[in-house]
Amino acid sequence: MIFVCSFIALYLIIVGIPVLSYCRIVRNPRLALYFAKVLDRIVLFLAGVRLKVRGVEKLNQNCGCVYVGNHTSHVDMAVVFLTVPGDVRFLIKKEAFRIPLVSFAFRTMGMIEVDRSNPEASARSIDRAVSEIRAGRSVILFPEGTRSRQSNILPFKKGAFVLAIKAQAPVVPFTLIGAEQALPPDTILLYGGDVELIFHDPIETKGLQLEDRDQLLQEAQRRVESALFEQKDAKIAKEISISDAPEI
């Protein structure tokens, strides 16, 4: 873990700060986004995180989409950011923008700040995200609003689905399994292990109105939860088969 932290610090000093400064000057985040993905890939490898991805063939990098999924660990952002094709943006809560270097990096890469306590500011964030999607970029959100410390998904909030309907963009649900073991919520220690990212079939929003947002939310959450239920059922079946195995 000390080695991984040292590598991140050196990478930020040697590569990160110069690249971010250049991107800020030219007002183009593309290079910063590329090197952020490189850093994610290296850190996950050094930490022993083994990533398995299913459903990539369902993704369309030629149009902006709204990606929504469960959130149990800081590893989630790295894994999804690394995997989603094309130019992507996150909607990130305002508290993260209070950290000086982190704020500089997020703003330079075009990430979108969300103040959930201020309805007017939240509406402006949604409008900016709509503009990003119409420009062909995808937006990634974790609609639980915080990292879940339970085995069950927290109720999704409506903002992501308001965004998708306003932008008339497909909603792509995804499920993360195992991230909470690789990096538990209340620690900065990476333990490594297997992390699975499952992309579900996109949900079209063309023709939907804002009053359809609850139905859209429920369908997206159902798809995210379905993979978790399958994983739990498989685990229970495996435990039963082991317990029923004859002694030798």
Overview of the structural elements:
The protein has helices at 2-26, 30-46, 75-83, 100-108, 119-134, 159-167, 179-182, 213-244, and strands at residues 49-54, 66-69, 88-93, 112-114, 138-141, 171-177, 193-199. It is α/β, with parallel strands linked by helices. The chain has a single domain, classed as Glycerol-3-phosphate (1)-acyltransferase. It has a seven-stranded mixed beta sheet, sandwiched between helices. Helix 4 (100-108) links the parallel strand 3 and strand 4. Helix 6 crosses helix 8 (213-244). The protein is globular and about 50 Å long. The mean pLDDT is 88.
- Terminal-residue CA separation: 41 Å
Strand order of the largest sheet: 1-7-6-2-5-3-4
Classify the oligomer: single chain
Number of helices: 8
Strand residue percentage: 5-15%
User: Helix and strand string, N-terminal first?
Assistant: HHEEHEHEHEHEHEH
Which ranges are low-confidence, i.e. pLDDT below 50, for 5 or more consecutive residues?
none
Offer a few descriptive terms.
alpha/beta, Glycerol-3-phosphate (1)-acyltransferase, 7-stranded mixed sheet
